[in-house]
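SAMPLE LOG
Freezer: B-3
Tube label: C17
Construct: single chain, 139 aa
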Amino acid sequence: MLVIDEVYHHTALQISSSDLLYLIERLKVKKENEIQTLKQKIEQFEQKRRAEEVAYQSLSPVRKWFAGRPASHHQAVEYMVQVKERFRKMEQIRRRIRELDQIAERIKHPDSIERDEIELAPDTIRELRQLSETEDVQA
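STRUCTURE (predicted):
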């Protein structure tokens, strides 16, 4: 199967459709693992924040008065960096996984006249090349 760059319209890869499907599935697994890693990081941040809150609440009123506690806007910025940005990244990865699913469907059920060609985005081609080098698949 010929993989054609949809921007520059040149042949980027020549690979069997089964190998291409295998690489796409491996890429999906890799993306799902990235999502799990991000979820773990968010959970660690939440646990740390809960532990800090419990420690602060256990202080006596006098110690609370002397305890240095970050301002609420600092906590909000930290939350944005640690949680919101990661949620955005997870949504981008999920979108990417849906795109990979659509590509796999196009390979499994070709509708076009050129059954041996598929147009892919340059980013997808780059990821497939990198993965094929690590997976020992001939591309």
